[in-house]
């Protein structure tokens, strides 16, 4: 989850690294540090606890120099967020530094072995072990009789990482071998940027996108050596590899706030564009057909599928729950949805006639990668729904559907979620067309509704924002809240509750509306805000029935003096008479209503967090990409 930036090139090093860290601070903000080196072996390190601005204040005015360097923003796993535990970490001699994203699972065993060799440790972190381990490789090489040539840094790194167990992406500098920046990956993401006579290392694309769009993605077991002459790739054994750069089409300006007070608000307002980019080129209103060229599964192969198994985490899990309703309703295939963090531990029953779908914004989520590995081990074809082309999950999948949402910086996911829903809806219709479970007229109606969706999201943003801002001023003092939904709308209740708890720190719970009598009614009193998703597709009898049942649940709440905020479709006069507050959205087909419903819930959470003075983009104890278990 941590942010890593490295640079080798002619520009002043400190501004390049600091700016990159600023763009990656969403990955970790417990502490920050920078290491600077020159071509003569001098190495200096500066670190500060807290957010990046503390490091910037520390080095402000210092005459910092260097021809290459490494920076890091930390999300704490082992050790408190103190200056001593901040990266980069040194070895005993102080001539080698390491930055690290991930967890070394066998660090205690390695630490004891190194202490037996008189290494002295000064931090609580697992990362410090890596620095000492590499140092020991240099010492062991010097002790080999007849050895005269110094051990290259990359070879010392390769020998050291072969002893590590766990997940890691590291960057290393050493005075023993000046002029080199070495990176290695096993699990968490790491990318290499190719500029004009300059080279970059980062843990995520936005950290270097303002310098280059030519990006190479390190794969597990890769080592990269960055020098002024270029980049060389090898595996952990030293065998040469080819990792040609890919062109990343994201606009660097997309990763800037563009006048918005927070990235989250900017990304909420980017949702019409994100959904439009996700569906662009994938549906034809002339033929009424969906086209998914990167699926890599033939119609014959898809017809053999008897079950869909989806694994994901967090907000992506909520998107997966919506997809279950979409696929089962439209394509008539059974769907199971699992938390990726639980998937492999329950010994799932899987087979070749199952299709595995992995949903992930970053494409690097550790638990989702582990679930994918379990599926592949059972010979299942896997499909990735992902926002980052070239990341680990789509690389390992048979096929993929890119969400094309662009970089998402706010820790609380917004536009990635709605883009995932749009992509999963396309896949559901595609499956239905292959399986002949929908008529051509039904498909055309669904795709027409999808085409209208970006404009409808824009309309929701215009109408709901002032309402949500006003509601936030009324409800920001609440310490608990309840979100209710029924059927396909229940996952949106879960997502609304998650957004509120993530960024405002208010305890919030999502619940199926039909389960109110089985416990949650006991929570209701005059202080409890209850957000009810109560929308309907008037042309769908099942949707209307669910809506009517939800109205009954709302009356259960109002009868107990609960304060109801309803999300309902325009011109719904009945619900206006029942509840205290209503946020209206346009009506559309049942399967697409979740995309419209979630937008006001995002805005509601955002404005409440602002009223409470919370750090919206960087909520406490959370990071954007969860690249460790």
What does this entry look like structurally?
The protein has 3 domains: 3-248, Aminohydrolase, N-terminal nucleophile (Ntn) domain (Glutamine Phosphoribosylpyrophosphate, subunit 1, domain 1); 257-438, Glucose-6-phosphate isomerase like protein, domain 1 (Rossmann fold), CATH 3.40.50.10490; 465-617, Glucose-6-phosphate isomerase like protein, domain 1 (Rossmann fold), CATH 3.40.50.10490. Helix 4 (127-142) packs across helix 5 (153-161) and helix 7 runs antiparallel to helix 14. The strands form 5 sheets. An 8-stranded antiparallel beta sheet has the order 3-2-4-1-10-9-11-15, with helices on one face. It has a 7-stranded antiparallel beta sheet with strand order 5-6-7-8-12-13-14, covered by helices on one side. Strands 19-18-20-21-22 form a 5-stranded parallel beta sheet, sandwiched between helices. The model has no long low-confidence stretch (mean pLDDT 89). It is α/β, with parallel strands linked by helices. The chain contains 18 helices and 27 strands. Strand 5 and strand 6 (96-104) form a beta hairpin.
Amino- and carboxy-terminal Cα gap:
11 Å
Helix residue percentage = 25-40%
Strand content: 15-25%
Number of helices: 18
Question: What is the fold named in CATH at topology level of the largest domain?
Answer: Glutamine Phosphoribosylpyrophosphate, subunit 1, domain 1
Q: Count the E strands.
A: 27
**The CATH homology group name of the largest domain:** Aminohydrolase, N-terminal nucleophile (Ntn) domain
CATH class of the largest domain: Alpha Beta
Strand order of the largest sheet: 3-2-4-1-10-9-11-15
Shape descriptor reads globular
Mean pLDDT value: 89
Outline the low-pLDDT stretches.
Answer: none
């Amino acid at each position: 989850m941590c942010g890593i930036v490295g640079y080798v090139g002619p520009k002043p090093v400190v501004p390049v690294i600091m700016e990159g860290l600023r763009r990656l601070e969403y990955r970790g903000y417990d502490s920050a540090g920078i290491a600077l080196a020159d071509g003569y072996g001098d190495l200096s390190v500066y670190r500060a606890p807290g957010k990046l601005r503390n490091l910037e204040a520390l080095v402000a005015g210092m005459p910092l120099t260097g021809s290459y360097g490494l920076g890091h923003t930390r999300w704490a796993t082992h050790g408190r967020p103190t200056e001593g535990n901040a990266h980069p970490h040194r070895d005993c001699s102080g001539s080698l530094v390491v930055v690290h994203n991930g967890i070394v699972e066998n660090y205690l065993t390695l630490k004891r072995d190194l202490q037996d060799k008189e290494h002295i440790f000064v931090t609580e972190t697992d990362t410090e072990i890596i620095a000492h381990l590499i140092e020991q490789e240099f010492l062991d090489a010097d002790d080999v009789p007849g050895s005269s040539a110094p051990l290259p840094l990359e070879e010392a790194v390769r020998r050291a990482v072969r002893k590590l167990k766990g997940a890691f992406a590291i960057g290393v500098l050493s005075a023993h071998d000046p002029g080199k920046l070495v990176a290695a990956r096993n699990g968490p993401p790491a990318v290499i940027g190719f500029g004009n006579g300059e080279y970059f290392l980062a843990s995520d694309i936005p950290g270097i996108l303002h310098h280059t769009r030519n990006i190479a993605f390190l794969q597990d077991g890769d080592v990269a050596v960055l020098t002024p002459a270029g980049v060389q790739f090898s595996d952990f054994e030293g065998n040469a590899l080819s990792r040609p750069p890919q062109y990343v089409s994201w606009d660097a300006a997309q990763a800037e706030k563009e006048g918005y007070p927070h990235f989250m608000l900017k990304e909420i307002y980017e949702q019409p564009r994100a959904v439009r980019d996700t569906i662009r080129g994938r549906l034809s209103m002339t033929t009424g057909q969906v086209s998914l060229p990167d699926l890599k599964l033939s119609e014959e192969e898809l017809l053999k599928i008897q079950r869909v198994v989806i694994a994901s985490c967090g907000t992506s899990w909520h998107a997966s729950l919506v997809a279950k309703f979409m696929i089962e309703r439209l394509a008539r295939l059974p769907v199971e949805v699992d938390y990726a963090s639980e998937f492999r531990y329950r010994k799932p029953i899987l087979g070749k006639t199952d299709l595995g779908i992995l949903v992930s914004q970053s494409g690097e989520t550790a638990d989702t990668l582990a679930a994918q590995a379990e599926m592949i081990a059972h010979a299942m074809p896997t499909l990735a729904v992902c926002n980052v082309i070239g990341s680990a999950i789509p690389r390992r999948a048979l096929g993929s559907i890119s969400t094309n949402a662009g970089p998402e910086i706010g820790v609380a996911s917004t536009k990635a979620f709605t883009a995932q829903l749009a992509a999963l809806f396309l896949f559901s219709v595609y499956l239905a067309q292959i399986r002949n479970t929908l008529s051509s007229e039904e498909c055309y109606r669904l795709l027409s509704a999808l085409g209208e969706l970006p404009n409808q999201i824009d309309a929701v943003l215009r109408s709901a924002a002032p309402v949500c801002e006003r509601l936030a001023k009324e409800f920001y003092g609440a310490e608990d809240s309840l979100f209710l939904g029924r059927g396909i709308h229940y996952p949106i209740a879960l997502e609304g509750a998650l957004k509120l708890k993530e960024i405002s720190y208010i305890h919030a719970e999502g619940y199926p509306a039909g389960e109110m009598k089985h416990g949650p009614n006991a929570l209701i009193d005059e202080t409890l805000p209850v957000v009810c998703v109560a929308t309907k597709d008037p042309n769908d009898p099942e949707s209307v029935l669910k809506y009517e049942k939800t109205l009954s649940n709302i009356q259960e709440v109002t009868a107990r003096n609960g304060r109801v905020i309803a999300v309902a479709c325009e011109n719904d006069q009945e619900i206006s008479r029942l509840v205290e507050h209503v946020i209206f959205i346009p009506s559309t087909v049942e399967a697409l209503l979740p995309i419209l419903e979630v937008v006001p819930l995002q805005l509601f959470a955002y404005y409440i967090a602002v009223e409470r003075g919370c750090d919206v983009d960087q909520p406490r104890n959370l990071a954007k990409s969860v690249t460790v278990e």
